[in-house]
């Protein structure tokens, strides 16, 4: 004891002695002592005042250092924002201070308080815990442990917490809690469970301990314990921040226990109480809704589950598909099954989804891009031993018959090495359907090949085989191969189903084939069979058949019967009765009832002012007046014909007749004038040569042969009255070679003729025949030049055909401006009905290519006035008219045409029209009708995939405008996966998908 007390006395004595020696230091020392006492009492404001005052008067370095220590400590205790800076400044000022470990501890504590755990760990590491007092040591350990826990270093954290639990006082229970948490976090569930079970009896830790106990039971799949603990937790703490997670665990547990009603109740609370519910729980909620029959809610929950590319998404898509099916939303069901089927996480789910997807494709024919055939094949390739395999094989046959993308189906069938009878039956029908598509698109050679393949296949599908005979006959008829057409029509009639519209039509077509071959007796028999079978509602064809019956009887000189049939035709179809009326008048003339003939012709001219037979009617009317010796009326009629139809060949004949009438009426001057008009207006024509011959007689009558000679000489080469024998014989020899079909020999002889007689009487004829030979050999430049020479010659004999061929060459050469003008000329001079129609069609097409919508409209209108227009040309004219209206910003006027031609999407015009119709509705904000059109388009399909794809992009645009981005994305993605074309569709899809992402 003495050893301790003595030093203490010495210390006290020295302080007293010092106080006695120097009074000037009493005030600073007193401030230091008072400051230190206030520091020990934790009166930090007072402490700071005293110590700051002390530092102003003191020079004792040791005490100033001690004062600074207490000052920065006080700043820390006061929680000053810059406490860490003051503490660090102290260390920098006094690097060897005995308080450095404590100061480092305080700096670490400042960072800890700010949540800067990494910095806190660093500064705790700078402090030696052993030199700290016991309270600081416990705080040090807890704060360092907590910081390590926050930084993820659970092993070190647990070590410090364990030390606290053993020796600590203030933080013992907290350390025990965090140790339990670390055991939970590191999957030491039993250890954690034991500790949480102890801690739940401590009020401060009861709520969180119960929560983690529930979590552990949930992780261990002890669902009954989860329910017990979780329900107790909700009851005890109804407003806990953990309740959303408790709802989730309870919902999951009830689901696994088979109580889906309670699962729905709990999971619904969970979903509504969190902004981002977990996908797995949304999936379970969706499944529960599905099992309970609440399919709309199932769709809502499952739809929020499919954000990632994983097994959960695959499962969710399968349930989504089933839910949409229950809601009868087959389109969305199809896309959901497709999404599940394209994922490979679970092969069993993939199999089920792919099967359902295939069935929906089969039932809805959704896109028409070939998947309706290939999906079943893909299924069998992927799952050859599937329990669905037998059903798929049966469906596959049915798909072949129902898909509209027949080419894909045919390609698919051809891959089968040993096709069954069902498959071959389907193949025969598919070949037939492809043939009708080719026919509708005017690809006659292709259609004939497909129909022939269907016929050659055998008797698997007798209906398709017989119908193929009919349509192959149609192709042959269109190509002018009437003998082959007759053979096919007869085969069809021998095997086809009687009492059908097509069976009756076969007799009609057969009649026309015989009629074209001028076998009038056979044609008459077939037309009569047709009218006996045809339903009277089909008045246009029936009236036409009666006209043809009349024509056959006319050729057989059974005029009275012919007249009866013409009358019946006119009664059936008054609007197209001009031909019937004309023929009836002609028959009356043959029966020498000229006045009756004139009466009917007058009626024709009055009732059908736009008829193509007006010029014929005027000519026949004039001839009837001649036969009635009414020369005045005849002359007036012929003059009217020449004035109204100057380009008609009948006007040339009328001019000759007019000259003869005046000559017989002793009016030679008028006769000479009429003949000269024919010679002038129609140089090179046979009528001009006749007129020149008759004009010579007129001048002889006038006893003025010199005037005739002068006139004839003034004509130059335009009209050759006298032809040398060598000229004539050389030409005739060359012409015979051409007529025999010896084109090479004819070409040499005709060329020789033109070289010998460059201005020969038959030079125009020779140029025409040479042009025809070049055209047949597709030497279009040469042919165009030669036809042009014929046109320039003014010779009317081959004028019409030369203009027609020249226009055709210009069109084929894509010289559309020139073609347009030439077709217009042809339209003004054509008398051949085929050339008249070709001229209008050529004008319309050329105007389209040259961007002249008004010209297109006029030409299309003229075409559609034709009474006997083929369905293909009619559709094309309507299409052109609709496009012209759209180009002229008159969309509403295009509506009727688009509706009509879009009925047949086998043709490219029909397919585009379907799309344009939907686009028109879309542009006028009529989404309902636009969708209706697109649904029909998807259902019926088309071989022209581009326009169907455009339709699907428009469909996506509709959904985008309606704010349904999910639906839009599904349509675009499905199109992206299934469309195989190499065009601008991919870019359109990417553009829209990119905008949807944004």
From TrEMBL:
SUPFAM superfamilies: TPR-like. Residues 29-112 form the Outer membrane lipoprotein BamD-like domain. Signal peptide: none annotated. SMART domains: TPR. It comes from the Bacteria. TPR repeats lie at residues 428-461, 466-499, 504-537, 543-576. The keyword Signal applies. Keywords: Signal, TPR repeat. This is Tetratricopeptide repeat-containing protein. It comes from Parabacteroides chinchillae. The lineage of its organism: Bacteria, Pseudomonadati, Bacteroidota, Bacteroidia, Bacteroidales.
